[in-house]
Amino acid sequence: MVYAARLPSLVADLPMSLTDLVIFDCDGVLVDSEIIAARVEAELISQAGYEITPEELSHDYAGLTFKDIMMRVEEKAAIPFKASLIDQAEALTDKRLAAEVRVIEGAREAILGVAGPRCVCSNSRPERIALTLGKVGLLPLFNDRIFSALATPSGKPKPSPDVFLHAAGVMKADPAKTFVIEDSVHGISGARAAGMRVIGFTGASHTWPGHGEVLMEAGAMTVIKRLSELPATIEALREWRPEEV
Q1: How far is 210 from 193, CA to CA, in rounded Å?
Q2: In a 3-state reduction of DSSP, which class is residue 167?
Q3: Residue 119: helix, strand or coil by DSSP?
Q4: Which residues contact residue 241 at a Cβ distance below 8 angstroms, ignoring those fewer than 6 apart?
Q5: CA 36 to CA 236: how far, in whole Å?
Q6: SS3 at position 148
Q7: Which of 61, 105, 182, 197 has its CA 20 to 30 A from that of 213?
Q8: pTM attached to this predicted model
């Protein structure tokens, strides 16, 4: 589903120079991993003294690292968590992902349908990105064009714009001519702060009623529910100059 009210008419013959780069988020965009991580993290946080469901965790903290989620819950509930929970969550989540992660429907076709350079920008560790994309067969489509926020010079995760700007620098792309596909408010905020155009995505299992509206409010130019709509959506948005937003 495209939020068509924000889209201009489709122009099929736009010059390729209008798009330097297309950036895909990984979790919740290419692989249906967010709900798996949310189940593990919600269980550990609940066991530590703060009751939370996977759905609540996905809604309130989607796109954040588990460390940042713990810090925010600690601040909200005044419950101290053991640092060992981070390693425990990482190990349990990796195990579950290796066994259960599935590709988002239409991901391969959407990646191959995007004209020009493409890459991945994620808050996950490089090893986890390789694990999930490798598991679903998408890893060869990006080669070495995969960027983990934790492995950038600053090490700052989204909503910092650093991983997006780092990727654009490496790929020699103009941020103003770069499109980003994101499923979280934090990812959209980071991409917008980097001066990029963002398409929201709500087709993964962790989505909730009103998810699309939340992404629009965060700054997405439009929202799609099916990755099959991505190439045409990018084509339609390429003629839209920033001053028109």
Answers
A1: 23
A2: helix
A3: strand
A4: none
A5: 33
A6: strand
A7: 105
A8: 0.85
